[in-house]
Write a structure and sequence with these properties.
Elements (H helix, E strand, L loop, with lengths): L6 E10 L5 E4 L6 E4 L7 H7 L7 E4 L15 E5 L3 E2 L9 E6 L2 E10 L3 E5 L10 E11 L2 H6 L11
Antiparallel strand pairs: 1-2, 1-3, 1-10, 4-10, 5-9, 6-7, 7-8, 8-9
EC number: 5.2.1.8
Protein name: Peptidyl-prolyl cis-trans isomerase
Main location: cytoplasm
């Protein structure tokens, strides 16, 4: 079954850095599920999966702009420590989560004061051309409800 728009696709991935070291992987977890063709996946990954078949395994190294984005040089902001989650004591270089109007956002601590922290808003992988090893594990036609909602439901997708 070829992957096309309006299909729910499940896949496993292993993300590797420029030296081939594993950064993260879904292999020992539930596969990632998304609604293909509805901007629910990084463009570089979705483009590579389009037209593939269930069972296909392949590697890609999309440009940073098609995954985690280009690194923005002036993307720092001061945030109250009470708005950071993920640790009790903060140090430069640590990752934190900040709640925003668009949901949680991962940031990197640049500098810590008594009440405020300077954070880098770039994703930690921004600006990097990373390798994705992908295995397409299943695909099915999306339900009318999934298409109307704009996302996959069930394991690996959105839970209502």
């Amino acid at each position: 079954m070829k992957i096309e728009d309006d299909m729910v696709v499940q896949f496993h991935y292993t993300l590797k850095d420029e030296q081939g070291e594993v950064i993260e992987s879904s292999v020992l977890q539930d596969p990632i599920a998304y609604l293909h063709g509805h901007d629910n996946m990084m463009p570089g990954v979705e483009d590579a999966i389009h037209g593939k078949n269930v069972g296909d395994k392949f590697s890609i190294t999309p440009a940073a702009k098609d995954t985690y984005g280009e690194r923005l040089p002036d993307a720092e902001q001061r945030v109250s420590l009470k708005h950071l989650t993920g640790a009790d004591k903060w140090q430069p270089g640590m990752s934190a989560l900040v709640n925003t109007d668009q949901g949680q956002r991962q940031v990197t601590i640049v500098k810590v004061g008594k009440f405020m922290a300077t954070v880098d808003l770039n994703h930690p992988f921004a600006g990097r051309d990373l390798r994705f090893d992908i295995e397409v594990v299943s695909a099915r036609a999306a339900t009318d409800e999934e298409i109307a909602h704009g996302h996959a439901h069930g394991v690996g997708g959105h839970q209502h």
